[in-house]
């Protein structure tokens, strides 16, 4: 290739020359491009990229520009702080109201909408995400320097990490508060790749794990789940207070297990009452995010690690609708 000295170029012409050699994806990131004394000086936006992706981007720019006759050397500055990953907590006061099921299905629905999502199973004592996201028995790897766990890829385009992937079942039961806090930090600070949204499936209640999570990794917002029973609602209100004290905005309240549709006769009954959560949300001035009916299909799908939100039948629809509200909140700050 001829590398003989060239006539001085105008900045616009230099930029055009550089842009012509780069792919559209890289051009999209370019903030400035100059050639100074046969050296290309590139500024590119990389705030959303993982460390590995930043290295790849630099290599791709260099490989594209070095063959140009006008360029002997390439200098690249990548701008943008690594964008902070957004954390959304999914909580309930009472156990067994479907918090884990909701977390899994919101994550799957958001991934299908193009978001890069991960799930942290914060239920250190009773992890359920390995089963729900079909990753049971998989052990997470570690980064080459051994300092971080590497999140596991589930079959649903959602990354996941749970204590259930790390310790033998039942082992964490003997752990005390500080150990659970450390364990959760290990999960949050893992290598999540290009994931930019993490949903944390919190254990029920207002105990150590919730408190340590709020103080160490203040979530950007919280989704509360309740069944329509009064008792569950009272506990949901307590969980809401915990978030408010921790200055975590409550995104809204979801009603789960409302309206059981009998698969035999189609009759709809309301084993836990109906509409209670929506009224309750209105009274507390918390947005109501939607209602997920109690269906046998949802329960069976959960047990088999086939999240309903990965499909397109009527059991997927409520999760998709709630995920759309959550996505709107993430983008605009309002549902
Ligand atoms: N809408 C629903 N329809 C049918 N079954 C459901 C529904 N939501 C949750 N379940 C079932 O109820 C059980 C409890 O759900 P899940 O584990 O999601 O609740 P949780 O609030 O996370 O519980 P825990 O307090 O143990 O963390 C599971 O067997 C799940 O499959």
From TrEMBL:
The keyword DNA-binding does not apply. GO terms for molecular function: ATP binding. Pfam families: ParA. It comes from the Bacteria. ATP binds at residues 93-100. Keywords: ATP-binding, Hydrolase, Iron, Iron-sulfur, Metal-binding, Nucleotide-binding. Homodimer. Belongs to the Mrp/NBP35 ATP-binding proteins family. Binds and transfers iron-sulfur (Fe-S) clusters to target apoproteins. Can hydrolyze ATP. PANTHER family: IRON-SULFUR PROTEIN NUBPL. This is Iron-sulfur cluster carrier protein. It comes from Erythrobacter ramosus.
